[in-house]
Amino acid sequence: MATVSYPAQALKLKDNQIRVPLGNTCKRWFGIDSFLIPMPSNLEFSTLKELRLLPRNRCFYWEFIYEKEIVVKPQLNQENVLGIDHGVNNWLTCVSNVNTSLIVDGKHPPLWFPSREGIGVGWYNKQVSTIKENKPTGFWSNKLAAITEKRNRQIRDGINKAARIVINHCLVWQIGTIVFGWNKGQKNEIKLGKKSNSEFVPIPTARLKERIAQLCNEYGIILIETERLLYKYCFIFRW
């Protein structure tokens, strides 16, 4: 049950389906020498470099490795800076020095908070805890696999969309530098209370930061990580 990779030379396109060979041993034992998987409509077979079969959560996925068109890096002004601070209700709060701002909402989309519409982290953790109650260590089931895969897909989709919102904002306003407030290991020592910790810690902000970094490299935007100041108490005085 490991990842299997097929180079493009071993694959053939037949009736808009990819023929994946299984080898002579499999043919001798089971009488099957290959199987077919559908060719994605948004890819050209000639651009395919590799096909990977990934076993995960009692399912098999196929992953296509292909050539990607080189993005022409736009001419951006590196003196235009977008500062990003992350949180819970406001996942990303972004302010620039060119009089623009935006907030990526982290509470209402059904990504990590309890919701009937989607499987968020909070809802997912409760479901896992309920299903595993009075079960032996290492227990796993088809239901756990199904909700885990759905949760992972929703989170991955949310990360990609949030990162694209930030990058598109930079492209529209000619912003060539992003400053991301970040403290390594901040979730390990965070003390916001039981409820706030349960909401803040599962949010995959590190993965979002990595995705933003990938897009910044693609579009020629400079990404700077800086220490994020955390205040335990805030006092407001009225004079």
Describe the structure.
This protein is an alpha+beta fold and 239 residues long. It folds into two domains: 4-23 and 36-66, no CATH class; 77-226, Nucleotidyltransferase, domain 5. 30% of the residues lie in helices and 28% in strands. It is built from five helices and eleven strands. It has helices spanning 24-30, 121-131, 142-172, 194-200, 205-219, and strands spanning 4-7, 12-14, 17-21, 34-38, 48-56, 59-66, 77-86, 90-96, 101-105, 175-181, 222-226. It has a five-stranded mixed sheet, covered by helices on one side. A three-stranded antiparallel sheet has the order 1-5-6, with no helix packed on it. Strands 2-3-4 form a three-stranded antiparallel sheet, with no helix packed on it. Helix 3 (142-172) packs across helix 5. The longest helix has 31 residues, at 142-172. The N and C termini lie far apart (68 Å). Mean pLDDT is 84; it is low at 110-119 and 231-239.
